[in-house]
Specification:
21% strand, 7-stranded antiparallel beta sheet, 459 residues, alpha+beta
């Protein structure tokens, strides 16, 4: 789809040129910016809407901006607040002071950090607002949003931005966006219709209608008060030397229930050899790119490539596998345990680096399971102070077995039974982790490299 520039008249044609010199250094510093390591050569405006006219105290603009970075660029959602000067509490949100154009002399900042603009978004969702001709705030007909819910932005690192409203709702705003159906809205809606209680049902959502395909900009869901994510729980257990197998077992059951509901709600396909070939080709291609990006992988490349060859070769022949919609980026951090002990799965967006089309393709359920198995290993090797290698490996293996056993109890199908496919997906995930850590957290690179060492030589 070609992007048509849409703007409310109040934004004026000089807004983006005036923001350009401020966005160039600010945008690449954001955790959710996807183009790290490549220079930004310019910006183009996809859409601009004035949400709150500036009257001397505060203004608010909603922008969809394409950042140009050869060989390609990405479109980002920005909420730009405008003030004469920032109070100290908003200092972390500073973008800079505008020197020219319609906002000359004023300070602009990331408005999600500011309670008033955040509250405006919730009110727009509550009232099903239509703003500027292209912004649509929709709400499920059977869901209500109460007034006077105090917003607070979550500061944890993530690929999007989230605001909690009064411990009742959480609004997830997508930062890097593409036109089309976003699985983080599509799948929870489908699961809600199936009556699957393992995933919070969407209450409301934000879209931009630009051309034939809408952009999904954000999703509002119930906030699971008192819930703790699985990553934090696992690290706590490790630090205390406690067992985590009961939690892992229950999480395996929760995963299986979600997979079963997704298979009922959405079409499934059968994967034969013809469908397996592009899957393996993708794994090989990602390995090639990873070796170029991270020289530490070069010594492992031949053995890792044989893992994928085994799936494509004799071990992969003559077997049909079912593929369906899956979570797409499952790990301990995407799972929340309520005080009651019940597990929920969240964040169905999939891997942000992949296109929406790729993320919506049916996949073997082992894709999700491999991600979770890698997450147990990650936790065991990330706790501080570090565990001895033998103890870390034993903790991870015990959790992995418990998780798979819980999964099998629900589905009757043990994911460990397809060892070639599971090992290929685990290897592909570890390769992805190596590239991610090399780019974003070099101090963590040793964790996936240790897994690469084990996966390359199963003996």
């Amino acid at each position: 789809m070609s992007e048509a520039v849409t703007r409310a008249a109040a934004t004026g044609p000089g807004l983006l040129p005036a923001l350009d010199p401020l966005l160039r250094p600010w945008l690449p510093r954001q955790r959710w910016f996807a183009g790290k390591g490549r220079p930004v050569t310019g910006f183009s405006l996809v859409a601009a809407t004035e949400l709150l006219p500036y009257t001397g105290r505060i203004g608010l603009y909603h922008l969809l901006v394409r950042a140009h970075q050869p060989p390609r660029g990405d479109c980002y959602q920005l909420l730009i607040g405008v003030r004469e000067a920032l109070p100290p509490r908003l200092a972390p949100a500073l973008i800079g002071q505008v020197t020219e154009g319609p906002l000359a002399g004023r300070t602009v900042y990331d408005a999600l950090h500011d309670p008033r603009p955040a509250a405006l978004l919730l009110e727009a969702l509550r009232s099903r607002a239509r703003i500027g001709g292209q912004l649509r705030f929709d709400r499920a007909p059977d869901r209500e949003i109460g007034p006077d819910l105090t917003p607070r932005m979550l500061t944890a690192e993530q690929s999007n931005s989230s605001v909690v409203f009064g411990d009742t709702f959480i609004l997830k705003l997508f930062r890097r966006i593409s036109p089309g159906v976003n699985p983080d809205l599509e799948l929870p809606l489908a699961l809600s219709e199936e009556g699957c209680a393992r995933v919070p049902a969407p209450t409301a959502w934000i879209r931009a209608e630009l051309g034939s395909d809408p952009y999904v900009l954000g999703v509002l869901q119930p906030y699971l008060r008192g819930a703790i994510d699985g990553w934090e729980l696992a690290l706590r257990a490790l630090a205390k030397g406690e067992d985590f197998t009961a939690e892992a077992h229950d999480l395996g059951r929760a995963t299986a229930e979600v997979h079963t509901a997704l298979a009922r709600a959405l079409p499934t396909v059968t994967m034969g050899r013809a469908q397996l070939e592009p899957l393996v080709a993708g794994m090989r291609s990602r390995l090639t790119a990873a070796v170029r990006a991270v020289p530490a992988l070069r010594g492992y490349e031949p053995k890792l490539r044989r893992v994928f060859d085994a799936l494509a070769g004799a071990d992969g022949e003559g077997r049909e596998r079912r593929a369906q919609r899956v979570h797409g980026d499952l790990h301990l951090g995407q799972c929340l345990r309520a005080p009651s002990g019940t597990w929920s799965l969240i964040d169905f967006e999939g891997e942000p680096a992949k296109s929406l089309t790729e993320r919506r393709l049916p996949q073997p359920v082992v894709r999700d399971i491999a991600g979770m198995l890698r997450s147990f290993d990650y936790a065991a090797h990330s706790v501080r102070p570090p565990l001895p290698e033998r103890a870390a490996a034993a903790w991870a293996d015990t959790c992995r077995d418990a998780y798979c056993s819980g999964y099998t109890e629900v589905t009757g199908d043990d994911p460990r039974g397809d060892a070639v496919l599971l090992r290929a997906y685990e290897t592909d995930k570890a390769v992805y982790e190596v590239v991610y850590e090399a780019r974003h957290r070099p101090d963590w690179l040793a964790v996936p490299l240790a897994a690469i060492d084990r996966l390359a030589d199963p003996s």
